[in-house]
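A favour, since you know our structure tokens better than I do. Go ahead and set the record down below.
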Amino acid sequence: MSASVPNERRLAVLRAIVGDYVCTREPVGSKALADRHHLGVSPATIRNDMAVLEEEGLITAPHTSAGRIPTDRGYRLFVDRISEVKPLSAAERNAIRTFLDGAEDLDDVMLRSVRLMSQLTQQAAMIQYPVSSAASVQAIEVVELSETISLVILVTSSGQVSQRTVALPGLARPEVEAARDSARALLVGLPLESAGASARAAVPLEGPPGPPSAVGTILVAAAEICDSFRVSRLAMSGTAHLARSRRDFASSVTPVLEALEEQVVLLRLLSEISLEERDLEVRIGSENAGPLSEAAVVVAHYGSPDSPEGGLGVIGPTRMDYAASMAAVRAVARYITRILHSDEQRILPQ
């Protein structure tokens, strides 16, 4: 018998322990493994293999029983040995396509995507809005809401839309349109960072000290919108799944829930994955910093490989169905990329 066979056999035992524990949340014993899995060896041999796996720090006994559960190192080896992420079924792919293709604008794409990931994985899900540092101003519109109040709307080349209410009292429609056209001539086509700076620089030139002119008011609003686009933000869904998994966290799930609420840790995590060469990253337990040190995360980026635009992923206990979560996150990321690029005109306001 070659020396590689025991290693492969023990890996099979580890995979069986991970699979059973994920399904049952109960420590797994050698007899249960022998009964439920076709490992081709006796319970005594499985016990010996489990002893070796425990010595290597891949499984552990949560209490004085015959059962064992995977450690963070065990989960890591399991994930690393997933040679290929199992693709979703045709029905699942069609469901994703139908659900996301129904989105009307960027906000709808983000909210649908994060809800979909949570439903597919039964974990908390997050998605980062496209990082707009490379986006430019595509359109500016001014809509009159009343005789004194108007709405300044700015659209970026990446499909984001935002608005600000402004006071433009006593102006006829031609005056408002002329001011809008001046703002368009100055800002449309500029990157967001340059557009914000150009808008602010132009405001003092519009007239003597005092209340700003119509074009000055529009430019101030446009600069504020440009600033808001350059601030990363997240959409979240499924935090209730974490709350229902309290038993899976050795100390407390509270730090994870707080991290989801504050979002700073999550944004840092997504910015780190965007710098990685891989399109999918799994971090387990202690591989995560701070409040996520007892959690597992599966994250990916969307956008072109050379220029990722944002990140998305799921967060849950280390007792996670990694294969299913990895497949769902990767599939949603690819569909978002397709929607934002192939169909980007469809999600922009007409």
Notes: Residues 1-6, 343-350 have pLDDT under 50 and may be disordered.
